[in-house]
Write a structure and sequence with these properties.
Elements (H helix, E strand, L loop, with lengths): L11 E3 L2 E3 L9 E6 L2 E6 L8 E6 L2 E8 L5 E8 L2 H8 L1 H9 L4 H8 L6 E6 L5 E7 L10 E5 L2 E5 L7 E4 L2
Helix pairs in contact: 1-2
């Protein structure tokens, strides 16, 4: 059976599961991001219809892109924190806290762990961690929502930055 789709760059969301991409002549699977994990859902072959955890992410992934070698760059909006863990476990508490008369900027800072910072992670198609790039102070890039590798450079974007960050991988 041949996989009919080329490399897909769009994101289809359905509640809390995000279907991402990866179709090639070698393998045909969907990459799902949910609960700070990347999951591989097989579309053909012996494993068709099954899924497996590809990687556990150190934060909340916003976007995933493949490079020319087939590795995955994951843009991580913010790291996991105790506050976000508690809010995820107790949605009623989260609703209550969001209704408190606390400025939105403070609510946002609580959600992202205190201060915006930049984090991108590179994984192999097998889920092996290959590289981590982090700006823990958020001085250059923060709250990264897009990452793309092109011509030996890593292009990073965010809705919080009025510019695109470029990192030379060479």
């Amino acid at each position: 059976m041949k996989c009919l789709w080329p490399s897909v760059k769009s994101v289809i969301s359905q509640e809390q599961v995000w279907i991402l991409f990866h179709f090639s002549a070698v393998s045909c699977f969907l990459l799902l991001k949910c609960e700070c994990r990347l999951r591989k859902y097989w579309l053909k072959g012996e494993k068709a219809g099954t899924s497996e955890v590809l990687a556990i992410i150190p934060g909340f992934p916003d976007n995933v892109r493949t490079n020319e070698e087939g590795n995955f760059w994951v843009a991580i909006h913010c790291r996991r924190s105790f506050y976000t863990h508690i809010n995820a476990q107790y949605p009623n508490l989260r609703t209550f806290l969001l209704k408190l008369p606390i400025p939105m900027k403070i609510q946002y800072l609580l959600q992202i762990g205190g201060w915006p910072h930049g984090l991108v992670v590179k994984y192999s198609p097998e889920g092996k961690l290959l590289q981590i790039l982090e700006d823990s102070q958020g001085k250059v890039v923060k709250a990264i929502s897009e990452v793309e590798e092109k011509d030996g450079k890593l292009w990073m974007g965010s809705v919080l930055m009025p510019f695109v960050g470029v990192y030379n991988l060479a």
